[in-house]
Amino acid sequence: MNHRLVAPVGITATGQCFPPRVVTNDDLSKILDTNDEWIRTRTGIRERHWVEPGTGASQLGAPALKQALENRGMKASELDLIVVATVTPDTIFPATSCRIQDMVGASNAFGFDLNAACSGFLYALTTACSLVAAGGIKKAAVVGVDIMSTIINKEDRTTAVLFGDGAGAVIVEQVEEGLGILDFEHRVDGTGACYLYMPAGGSLKPASAETVANKEHTIHQAGSEVFKNAVREMADNSRLLMDRNGFKGEDLKLFVPHQANIRIMDAAAKRLELDPARMMVNIDRYANTTTATIPTALHQAVEEKRVAKGDLVILSAFGAGFTWGSTLLRWAY
Ligand code: UT7
Asked: Is 169 helix (H, G, I), strand (E, B) or coil?
């Protein structure tokens, strides 16, 4: 079944924010048993940005949203809704969306956080666009922000090298007929929860001296299990969207995959029979920023004029949960 919105709604501006500190593979090889060659060839990552300690998600999310508002020529007070996708909120509560609302001065907005790990931005985009399409609100912002450096075990080379910090934001509103979100397909499979998770710090296992000593507040990942599933589901899910809307690989102007591993992205693009030049890549500079990979890659595509009004675009993600999904859209501006 095609998941069409009841009115044409799409992205009308983008913004991003990365912290200034760049951490290269060579920097990491000074503190971990790793090296630039392994990281580059196995993941495609050359460097990542990490915040200075004491920086919360809102401090990257708010500037990203301000930039998107500026690019749209819109005042923060015009926003009706802010949805923030994150796995690293400033605090468990209140929601990071509340802090961002205050920091940007979105005096007429309501907002909430949404957690779907690496698929979070796509789920948040669908949620915000659906609310706008339903007619209750006019203008919404979707922010994907993660401060992954605060939840990695910096002594574990199998995960510490993979992640970066960053934020991307988009504005969504009604657009011309035929543009914006055309279709989406999102899925969850909870049997995958054991392959990528943070064991402690939630209600199941609250923080204690023991959980902290055991580094249970950091990412635990069975990399190869996640890898296999990510390649299959991102490709199959994107293919399903193209097939049911009557498009072929050559019709796509831009493929914007979640940036977790260049080998996953290349394999997905190959299974979709896409020209590799049409795939957005920013993993080399920013690593895996979880919910921020797709909005920052989109922002880059706009800045580099790699997407224009009417172009067909697929966004696709896979992450912890397992969660995955794809969104098919015609670029609206
Ligand atoms: O965004 C959320 C979704 N996450 C993902 O999509 C991540 C999916 N998984 C992956 O990207 C890959 O599985 C990894 C990059 C995490 C790992 O790559 P891999 O090719 O699956 O490597 P591996 O785990 O099979 O490890 C191969 C070897 C091991 O050594 P032995 O046992 O063969 O001696 C690891 O200990 O590479 C070793 N290794 C490292 N060596 C140097 C693992 N990490 C490193 C490292 N530096 N950083």
From this structure: strand
**Would 9-177 and 181-330 be classified into the same CATH topology?**
yes
What CATH number does domain 9-177 carry, 3.40.50.300, 1.20.120.430, 2.40.50.140, 3.40.47.10?
Answer: 3.40.47.10
* Six token digits for residue 24: 């290269």
Regarding the beta carbon of 229 and ligand 1, being less than 6 Å apart is answered: no
Task: Name the residue with the closest Cα to ligand 1, atom 48.
Answer: 157
Query: Which H/E stretch holds residue 23?
Result: strand 22-24
Q: Catalytic amino acids?
A: 118, 258, 288
- What mean pLDDT, rounded, does the chain reach? 96
pTM for the model stands at 0.97
When pLDDT is cut at 50, 70 and 90, the band that residue 308 belongs to is very high
Atom of ligand 1 minimally distant from the CA of 224: 13
Q: Is 219 helix (H, G, I), strand (E, B) or coil?
A: coil
- Measured by CA distance, the residue closest to atom 13 of ligand 1 is 223
Check if the beta carbon of residue 47 is closer than 8 Å to that of residue 23. yes
CATH code for the domain defined by 181-330: 3.40.47.10
Ligand 1 within 6 A of CB of 119: no
CA distance 56 to 298: 23
What residue's CA is closest to ligand 1, atom 41?
Answer: 34
Site to substitute for ligand 1 among 88, 261, 286, most atoms within 8 A of C-beta: 261
Give 27-81 pLDDT, tens digit per residue.
999 999 999 999 999 999 999 999 999 999 999 999 999 999 999 999 999 999 9
Distance CA 261, CA 141 (A): 27
**Residues in CB range of 208: below 8 A, 6 or more apart:** 200
End-to-end C-alpha distance for the chain, whole angstroms: 28
The residue whose CB lies within 8 Å of the most ligand 1 atoms, and thus the one to mutate among 227, 229, 283, 288, is: 227
How far apart are the CA of 158 and the centre of ligand 1, in A?
5
